[in-house]
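From the shared-data thread, chain only:
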Amino acid sequence: MKRTLLEIVLVLSLAAAGYFGWTNLQKGKLATAEIAAIQTKVDVAEELLKDSEKEVETAENALDALEETLDPLKEKALELDAVKAAIANGPLLQDVESLYKKDKKLSVERQLSLGALRMLVKGSDDPSATDAFNKALQMADWGSRKNSICAAQIGLAAAGQKVKVMSECAVQLPGADAVASHGDPKAHGAAPAASAHASPAGDKAHGKEVKTADAHAAPHWGYEGAMGPDKWGKEFPTCGKGQSQSPLNIKSPFVKGRISVTADYKAGPLRMLNNGHTIQVNVTPGSKLRIDGVPHDLLQFHFHRPSEEHIDGKPSAMVIHFVHKNAAGKLAVLGVLLKEGNENPGIKTLWANAPAAEGPEVVLDDVSFNPGNLLPREFDFFSYEGSLTTPPCTEGVRFFILKTPVNISREQISGFPFKMNARPVQPQNGRIITSG
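Structure, as tokens:
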């Protein structure tokens, strides 16, 4: 009996010892797993630490390089502060403004100078500086004022205005988010100013002659010879590489459009310019083209001979391009084809006052002209997305070519001082032409 009890106790002891041993073994395995997990985390942390150290080293190197770059900038900043302090504490700004008040119409360059001076003295939030840059932008002529347009756009951008800076200005604005906009708010065709140019320089017969700067400040281009349309791409890359260039040969198939386009043009003083590429009429504010209800201000209109747009492969005798811009800076061109026929009363007025040779804008305060006199009654149109038809050939311009032409006499065609100033039609490249 005693032996049996001893055996039972021995078995229980062995069982207990085995249970405790098994339990400790499981705990050991669990501890080993936990240690392995901790070691993995340590390894990951060490890798992250190494990566962080590399990033810190890279950042330190970049900071050192930035400090080297900043040193000369600090010197320039000190120079600028010195100039600003001198001007702010002196009468220069007051003298310049007093002098400029004597001129009713300041030149593009003087508007830019005034804007820059006010921004320097008063800061980038000065409304008068913004106003001066805006006026310069409205007045500038793309054909010979690219630098002025860039300066005005950059000035407005510096003032915090929502303005698209032309991609062509990127060299003057390193690192800026320049967009291929139409830049010059008036530009299209051979299109200089949208409103007043330059400063008055005395009277010329029945009007005032307004002087401009050298008309060949930008690279020269023309319609024939070494810088004819087939060579524009050498100086203006978009002209050669753009995929949405104007003008087009307008031919079927067409897509039916539902776009509403109406013109509301007003009479105003006649302001004309022969810029060496076309006859252009700059329009005073108030005339608008509404596209699906969105107003586009008429800036200027100009002429091409023969028409740049072809209809089924055939050009018209001439075309008028009316250039508009909306509040977002989007350009829209309304094209009116001119066919040989009866004398056109509106063109008779224009030709009677148009400068025969290249020169400054002529302001004819005693002659009132309404651009609406050049429009047909019917307003059906073809529409497509295109570009400026002259350098720099900036794309993103919406064209509306009216289907109904208006008359112009043979004598009036001959009276246009340019025998040929039309860019050849460009590849359609799959673009849709809408018929509305």
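DSSP finds nine helices and 18 strands in the chain.
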